[in-house]
Amino acid sequence: MSAPNIKQGYLAAAGAIAIWTGFNIASRLAGKSALAGTDILALRLGTAALVLLACGGLPRGALRDARLWLLTLLGGLGVSIFAYCAFKFAPAAHGGLLLPGMQPFLVALAAWPLLGEKPQAHKLPGYALIALGLLLSALPMLSGHDVGQVWIGDLMLLAASVSWAVFGVLARRWGFAAWPLTRAITIMAALLYLPVYLLWLPRHLAEASWGMLAFQALYQGVGAAILAMLLYLRAIAALGTVKMGVLFALIPMLAGLLAAPLLGEPLTVSLAAGLASVSLGAWLASRERRKAAAPTPAACEA
């Protein structure tokens, strides 16, 4: 791999990390507005589906594939609706903890029954640090402090994280390529959700400013749903999945640090310690054990 390609890979990784870190901030900003989680999901799916219809549309045969409908329910609807509704109650830092921070542990847990892959022993310290981080961040709740309805948001974030993990494991099991899969689950989710939203769900779009609506539509529908995926695929091609997993461990800490100045959310000692522990745990759990390279005969070297 040439140096320019490696550099481009790190730039793409930085872009994807920035967008997915900002997802927590933008979603919490929407949660503190008049918009409901159902409104944000409609903006995301409506915008993304229009863009993707112009960029290839549905892959051939997608509507007849039951596996894609299941992945749509998990990755196209489950993750987003739980996450957007959660940010009505939970702070952005909790999104960093429970969404990307929990993924190494939850993916390993889902891969055991679905793929037959047992958790690897060298990753156990990482999982333990993730658990410790969650315990530290929950100290105010466990010690009896009044945290209001934050726990409701945390449960929704956990549900979103479980949906994301199962979605990723099943997508890997069934061997779907990322870009056609992104187009399929986004457009199919729009086909399922938008009629329900328009006909039966309460709508609060008129109560929000045009600026907020445009920002959420572009950030969630173009940035988080499409651009971040393209950057992620570019980074994976240049750096590999292991390095990307390690870099993504930065997201919980970055989300917590940015939420304090941008949203005015308190960064307590226990929360900061929890963010650091989860980020370190995610980093350790994303690493692969290095195998000792066998000596290569000189005649075979290239």
Automatic annotation (TrEMBL):
InterPro entries listed in its UniProt record: AA-Vitamin_Transporters, EamA_dom, EmrE-like
Lineage top rank: taxon: Bacteria
Source lineage: Bacteria, Pseudomonadati, Pseudomonadota, Betaproteobacteria, Neisseriales
Main subcellular localisation: membrane
Name assigned to this protein: Probable transmembrane protein
Lipid bilayer topology: Multi-pass membrane protein
DNA repair found in the keyword field: no
Gene Ontology terms: cellular component: plasma membrane
Location(s), subcellular: Cell membrane
Transmembrane segments: 40-58, 70-90, 96-115, 127-144, 150-171, 183-201, 213-233, 245-263, 269-286
Stretches assigned to the EamA domain: 9-137, 152-286
Entry keywords, A to Z: Cell membrane, Membrane, Transmembrane, Transmembrane helix
Keyword Cytoplasm: no
PANTHER family membership: INNER MEMBRANE TRANSPORTER (PTHR32322), S-ADENOSYLMETHIONINE_S-ADENOSYLHOMOCYSTEINE TRANSPORTER (PTHR32322:SF18)
